[in-house]
Amino acid sequence: MTVKITAKYVGGQQVELEHGPSGSRILTDLPVDNGGKGGTFSPTDLFASSLASCILTIMAMVAERDGIKFEGAAIEIEKEMQDNPRRISKFTGTITLPAGLDEKQREKLLACVKACPVGRSLHPDIAVEFKTKAEEGI
Fold it and tell me: Residue 72 belongs to a domain with what CATH number?
């Protein structure tokens, strides 16, 4: 399956991305630490967002298939950049799972971290570290 994304420079160090199938649009900006204004997501911010969204989406698929209550699940992710060459060196984050899951359900959902296609596409030099917590009262 292929999906066409069109990137168009719109000025002010910003690029507009258009998702071909839906027409949805996203604007990116240069980050402050690379001389930009940081007014919205940078391309590497989208990379971190893609990883978090992919993991959560795969988890949601598994949860729905297996009848696991998944509302309230969340991922908070941070990316670290390195210089020379400038690239992402590490992703760290916290996965919040709904309260009340048994150990088998938690293990099944956490296995989705390794099943995510975005994560599987990362260069092996990029460290990925997640910790988990259960959401209280969900």
Answer: 3.30.300.20
